[in-house]
Amino acid sequence: xxxxxxKLAGWANENLRDFPWRRTTEPYAIFVAExxxxxxxxxxxxxxxxxxxARYPTLEVLAVASVEEVSQVLQPLGLSFRAExxxxxxxxxxxKHQGKIPAMEEELLLLPGVGKYTARSIxxxxxxxxAAVLDTNVARIIERFFGLKGERVKSRCKILWSAxxxxxxxxxxxxxxxxxxxFGAIVCTARKPHCEECPLQEKCCxxxxx
Length: 210
Fold this sequence. Notes:
Structural class: mainly alpha
Number of helices: 12
């Protein structure tokens, strides 16, 4: 485990991607980013995120915006229900949480459009909590390197969630999560993974079985 963490940490020092939401820990900014990133490639979300934050710089401004208006801004990202859920969540936070994004996973999960991955990302990136995440990129790395086989719907697989928790370091889990996301997007890709340049190839079950 220490070897795995060390190799990926070294890779991250040279290869982590830069996006505007990664330059802040402000809870509202992270909250918006996580909604925009749902089922959306980060590079596609980036310009829309900057436009969105310029138009709705605070939760208070978003909470009084119309769903139709927000939907127009988010239209390039697809998922027609995204705007409605984001607006509903913003209003609930205003009404029930005094306008402050909840810092607890259990409270975040009660908001429309917030699942386990989104809740944990907010906890890690906005509040510095040791909350590991699991998406298709992270699941792919875990399955390949450790030789595990998760369920078809990775986001609901208890085995893979347990593995994600187990491999996470005790500190700076936010950076660790970003490392896995970027590593899966750049090196351990779904199709034609770049195994020849992978720092994990020496001990990877996927490489060994190829």
